């Protein structure tokens, strides 16, 4: 019946998608996909590698109201220095990776979003070898989404779909602060 939401069957196959680049909208694109999937009864889990802590993002707020959607944030929500990440940042990213491995390999979720994992890789909070193994070991039916700037070439090469967000103009350049519900 058209328009009726039914319990979803498993995806016949899951792909690997990457949303990267310096432009705005990587997490938003992944959440858009999640919203579409939830509409058809699929189960979605979003794991945030950098966001979290005291800094509350809108997706954390809305996730409480979405059926079949879970979100767990591992970051502390503060800026991470590229030249000198804190041991706490490394530990949180490793914990996120371990949790992601469990969620992906148990196969309960149809779509798994690894939000800002590319940033965690770029900052060397986690190793590329572990991320590649995670991608290669995903169950056949799981759609895996990796977001964040600086997607490594090994991740890009493994992906089935890669979208690069390119900034053309952003209000941050005019010192416009981020707005609740729009940028966070």
Task: Spell out the blueprint of helices and strands.
Elements: E1 16-20, H1 26-39, E2 44-52, H2 58-62, E3 69-75, H3 87-106, E4 111-115, H4 117-122, H5 128-136, E5 143-147, H6 153-158, E6 161-164
Parallel strand pairs: 1-5, 1-6, 2-3, 2-4, 4-5
Features:
alpha/beta; Rossmann fold; 6-stranded parallel sheet
Mean pLDDT: 92
- Poorly predicted ranges (pLDDT <50, ≥5 residues)? none
Number of domains: 1
Q: Which value, in Å, is the CA radius of gyration?
A: 16 Å
SS element count, helices: 6
Specify the oligomeric state. single chain
The SSE string, one letter per element, is: EHEHEHEHHEHE
Helix content, binned percent: 25-40%
User: In CATH terms, what is the fold-level topology?
Assistant: Rossmann fold
Please state the structural category. Answer: alpha/beta
Number of E-state strands: 6
CATH superfamily: P-loop containing nucleotide triphosphate hydrolases
- Give the N-to-C terminal Cα separation: 37 Å
Notes on the structure:
The protein is α/β, with parallel strands linked by helices. It has a single domain, classed as Rossmann fold, CATH 3.40.50.300. Helix content is 33%, strand content 19%. The protein is built from six helices and six strands. It has a six-stranded parallel beta sheet, with helices on both faces. Helix 2 links the parallel strand 2 and strand 3 (69-75). The radius of gyration is 16 Å and the shape is globular. The N and C termini lie far apart (37 Å).
């Amino acid at each position: 019946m058209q328009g009726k939401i039914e319990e979803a069957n498993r995806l016949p196959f899951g792909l690997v998608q990457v949303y990267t680049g310096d432009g705005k909208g990587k997490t938003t694109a992944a959440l858009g996909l999640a919203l579409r999937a939830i509409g058809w009864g699929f189960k979605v889990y979003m794991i945030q590698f950098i966001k979290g802590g005291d800094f509350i993002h809108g997706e954390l707020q809305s996730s409480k109201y979405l059926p079949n959607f879970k979100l767990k944030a591992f970051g502390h929500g503060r800026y991470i220095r590229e030249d000198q990440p804190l041991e706490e940042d490394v530990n949180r990213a490793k914990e996120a990776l371990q949790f992601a491995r469990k969620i992906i390999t148990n196969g309960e979720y149809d779509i798994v979003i690894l939000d800002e994992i590319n940033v965690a890789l770029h900052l060397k909070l986690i190793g590329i070898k572990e991320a590649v193994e995670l991608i290669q070991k995903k169950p056949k039916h799981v759609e895996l989404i990796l977001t964040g700037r600086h997607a490594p070439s090994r991740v890009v090469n493994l992906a089935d779909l890669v979208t690069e967000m390119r900034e053309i103009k952003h209000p941050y350049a005019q010192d416009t602060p981020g707005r609740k519900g729009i940028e966070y």
